[in-house]
Amino acid sequence: MSTAPAPPSGLEPIGEILDDGLGAGKRGATRVHLTIRGRSIPLQRLSGPPSGLLYWVCLLGPGLIASAAGNDAGGIATYSAAGARYGYDLIWVMLIITVSLAAVQETCARLGAATGSGLLDLIRDRLGLGWSLCAVGVIVIANTGLVCSEFVGIGTAAELLGLSRLVAVPVAAGLLWYLVVFGSYDRVEKVFILMTAVFFAYPAAALVSRPDWTAVARGAFVPTLRRDPEYIFLLVGLIGTTITPYMQLFQQSSIVERGAGRRRYGPERTDAYVGVGFSNRMSVFMIMATAATLHHTGHTHIETAADAAKALEPVAGRAAGALFAVGLLGASLLAGAVLPLATAYALGEAFGFRKGVNLDFRRAGTFFGLFTVLIVIGATAALIPGLPVIRWLVGIQVLNGLLLPVILFFVFRLANDATSMGPLKNTRLQNVVAWSTFGLVTTAIVAMLGTQLLNMVGLHVPSG
Q1: Which has the closest alpha carbon to 357: 139, 135, 190, 173?
Q2: Residue numbers in the chain where pLDDT is lower than 50
Q3: Strand, helix or coil for residue 34
Q4: How far apart are CA 159 and CA 165, in angstroms?
Q5: Do residues 157 and 295 touch, judged by C-beta distance below 8 A?
Q6: What would the 3-class secondary structure string for 342-358 be?
Q7: Which of 110, 395, 404, 463 has the most C-beta neighbours closer than 10 Å?
Q8: Cα–Cα distance measured from residue 440 to residue 404, given in angstroms and rounded to the nearest whole number
Q9: 3-state secondary structure of 316
Q10: DSSP characters for 356-388?
Q11: Count of alpha carbons within 13 angstroms of residue 211, beta-carbon side
Q12: What is the pTM of this model?
């Protein structure tokens, strides 16, 4: 008696899974059907399975979108400030963060594929409603502030490109609202992926700025540590703006909505890794652009992405400033849609109401109502003159910093639950990377808060 082969567990070689998921073209009379993540997609005018660029377009999804959305207006400001203040010296931090972020995002993808539940769903079911409510409370406060900052970024980028804020912000809000409320999940995902192309403005800006490649290599592979409180603050800021809670929430919830399961987990894992690699490369190019220009000329203090774009023009020319502004506009548009969605997903998971982009207002009124309210709040705040955006962002970063270790603890603990995860449970190596990431993030945040506390009581940490 023959034994049936075991189904894929999600831990087999990536190529094997990709061949199974992407290569299963069913030839018909006139077209090919692409089977990916359990869905059959008709592709006209193709005589075989997709390859090259089309292959990757079909593969990428929540992983790329979530990681790219992390490079939002606040992120661009932080990366730009790091390059302007310390040149190339903090690039090595980005290499370490890339490994940590890859571990976090891949774990969330695996949780979604293995359990079919969002992160707040799992926290509520496994750890209790109290923890779920505590987490969602901080998420709502922090994400609402971030949504406002994204629409401020849209308005600022529009003005840098010669457009009126009073026109650009309402139009952007209306388009994002229409896309999500009236579009299907597949359509929304395709538009979001298309929006990530705008990040290629940053490599172009970096190349126009003519960086010192020897100094880039030294900054990447020779770690530099200083006792300067501002250096510590920026180092922690790089961690906090690269690994943000809404990225984990969005990625896991999106994978659940698109119906990815254990048998189709391989492409999701690749998507998570590719998204992290793409996003953090763009972050490094932002640091390089301001290091090669602003730091080199002594312009070391900037607070916003708009400051960086304006300061680049007289140093590197109008092209560099315009590229930075285009990148800011695209990044703010993407995050301006992803953040309200991630927040609506989180509330739906915490309180158990129906959620999903594939639904409509009649079937998921609360979900779309929350999304609408957040869009309106963000757009309205962006139109208020004299809004203290910088002070606001600092407070939000502190909130996200306090929330992040809690979220990571939940994620890594849930990933070790053999009952829920089955064969996708964390391996020993994954646990080493995961808990090292948790320790790194927690130590960095404690150092930042400790430094701020010492400064508040008049005890200043000496520079060096």
Answers
A1: 190
A2: 1-33, 35-40, 463-464
A3: strand
A4: 6
A5: no
A6: HHHHHHHHHHCCCCCCC
A7: 110
A8: 12
A9: helix
A10: -TTS-TTTSHHHHHHHHHHHHHHHHHHTSTT--
A11: 26
A12: 0.82
Please give the structure tokens belonging to residue 414.
């849930």
For 371-410, the pLDDT digits (tens) are 999 999 999 999 988 766 666 666 676 677 777 888 898 8
Residue at 232: amino acid letter: I
CA distance 70 to 150: 11
Those residues with Cβ within 8 angstroms of residue 275's Cβ, 6 or more apart along the chain or in another chain: 60, 62, 63, 64, 65, 66, 67, 68, 105
* β-bridge partners, 43: 32
Residue type, 50: P
What CATH code would you report for 60-456? 1.20.1740.10
* Helix, strand or coil, per DSSP, at residue 109: helix
On the 0-12 / 13-18 / 19+ scale of CB atoms within 10 A, 267 is: buried
DSSP state of 10: S
- Structure confidence by residue, pLDDT tens digits, 286-328: 999 889 888 877 877 777 767 777 766 655 567 767 787 888 8
Record the tokens describing residue 151, joined without a space.
């629409």
Domain spans, the chain? 1-59, 60-456
Name the token pair of 352: 């158990």
pLDDT at position 240 is 79
44 φ, ψ to 5°?
A: -80, 155
How many helices (H) and strands (E) would you count in the chain?
Answer: 20, 3
Q: Is the dihedral of CA 111, 439, 279, 192 positive or negative?
A: positive
Q: How many CB atoms lie within 10 A of CB 164?
A: 10
CB atoms within 10 A of CB 118: 28
Report the alpha-carbon distance of residue 437 to residue 105 in Å, rounded: 12
Say how far apart CA 441 and CA 448 lie, in whole Å: 11
Q: Judge whether 39 and 21 are in contact, CB under 8 Å.
A: no
